[in-house]
Amino acid sequence: MFEELDQLLDDLVLRPFQARMLDVLFHYTSWAGAESILRTRSFWATSHRDTDDPTELRAIDEVILGVVAALRGRSSDAALQVWDAFVTRFSETKVSSAFDVYITCFSATRDSSLHWTTYGGGGDGVCLGISMLRDEELPAGDEPRFFTPIEYSAETWQRKIEASFSGIVGQFVRFVSGRHTSNDKTRALRATLSALSRTAALAEIAAKEQHYSDECEWRSALLSRKDSSLRRQHRDVRGRRIEYVETPARSGDRAIVLTEIMLGPKNGPEAEHRAREMLTQVGYGSVGLAMPTIVRSAY
After folding, report:
1. What's the DSSP call for residue 268?
2. 153 CB contacts (<8 Å, ≥6 apart)?
3. Would you list the domain boundaries of the chain?
4. How many CB atoms lie within 10 A of CB 112?
5. Helix or strand holding residue 89 (H, E)
6. What does the pLDDT average to over 137-159?
7. Tell me, what's the pLDDT at 135?
8. What mean pLDDT is predicted for residues 122-136?
9. Does the predicted model carry a pTM greater than 0.90?
10. In angstroms, rounded to a whole number, what is the distance separating the alpha carbons of residues 1 and 187?
């Protein structure tokens, strides 16, 4: 039945992106950024068009098309129509064209000189150690959100995408080889193309070029259609106009659970008092919301 195929395709789409959530992730930011995050219980998610990575969401476009070309070369006639339709649609359906994607970045690396310099106010900012509550879902909303570690190896992506794409199209070929109505076969083709496009989109969100690998990035990505009513805002950063949206950290407007707040290496002796005051003002240290440890960078 078509419904069984649809479920199989959904499972195959998600399989390459299953990752064990870490207990703690780190978010480097300025003092003003930290105060805003803790007060509003939300993060600013930056448009993929305004990040510092010129290949954002496009790092593996050629890998994806290369995989399709290789699979097409050894495919049956039934599969050829899928590959040809996917390639024809790719420039329009790939995530960087079809969506506005808003990204919030975290790192698996604690006390990183690279992150202090690039994201932590040049060293006079702070780093929030955020407890990742594994059993808690991302806040529900009208726009889909996706949380994933970044994979920097093109070779790894080639293997993952080839395995995923082969499985998806293999299910389609088995379905259309059976006794099904022409209407169900048409539906199966649409569902298969959707599954391929979703897999490619998730891979593009979770991929960056190898030279960024020291960032050890995890990211939250919110996907929005260009004509959606999502409230987009703008700020100026070093003369650039940056588009962003506010995304709640947890459902129910609950406070972020912090394991620690680390003070950047260029902070003065008054920084610990400033951090404790900032945390107290937004409720840390009260009943039900523990005061995180305040530590200094070792740099």
Report:
1. -
2. 210
3. 2-296
4. 21
5. helix 77-93
6. 88
7. 64
8. 89
9. yes
10. 11
